Amino acid sequence: MKIGVDVDATITAYPAFFSAFTAAMAAAGHEIHVITNRVPGTEAFVAELLAQHGITYHVIHITRDKAAYIMAEGISVLFDDMDEYFATLPESVAVFKVRQHYNFDFGEQKWLCSSKTTKLVE
Questions:
Q1: What are residue 47's phi and psi, to 5 degrees?
Q2: Structural domains present in the chain
Q3: Which of 31-35, 61-65, 91-95, 116-120 comes out lowest in average pLDDT?
Q4: What is the value of pTM for the model shown?
Q5: CA nearest 14: which of 60, 79, 78?
Q6: Rg, the chain, Cα only
């Protein structure tokens, strides 16, 4: 299985979880793709950040079009905090949305849409 994980507000929000998770998944033979929308050419900086958090990975990919990369690479699981990166993915891709103050109303206890392409279903 190929697993995609975002950096900002995902790995950086829960580094202990993603350190343990990526290590366990890689040890079980799964491929970890770190997919982030950062400035192109900053892979070395991202690698350093991942090392600081103890993240196990196989690929770092910087892109604005995460959905296209996910489909092209056959990634079947994604962890991300922004709807715009996974709203168009097919049902076959499992998506785990990471809660943040801008995508979840903790007072009302409900999800918020973080892009124009997503409709909130109640």
A1: -60, -40
A2: 2-111 (3.40.50.1000)
A3: 116-120
A4: 0.89
A5: 79
A6: 14
